[in-house]
Write a structure and sequence with these properties.
65 residues; 1 helix; mainly beta
Length: 65
């Protein structure tokens, strides 16, 4: 998994009825775009995440198309 600043990190819900959590990558802490990432959630909360298999990176270039 590789991400850049400005990409979206989507953590999919694991059980029925649980919504996806979307955050924005504000800092890449690993080498060459690898985790961990500092992310910001819509409410302003920031966290450091090492995404697991339930996460997906939506690159900012692909969202503009």
């Amino acid at each position: 998994m590789r991400a850049s600043v400005g990409d979206k990190l989507v953590q999919h819900g694991r059980v029925v009825g649980q919504h996806d959590h979307v955050s924005e990558v504000v800092e890449v802490l690993g080498p060459e775009g690898n985790p961990p990432y500092r992310v910001r959630f819509p409410d302003g909360h920031e966290a450091v995440m090492s995404p697991g298999p339930d996460c997906q990176v939506k690159h900012k270039e692909k969202e503009k198309q």
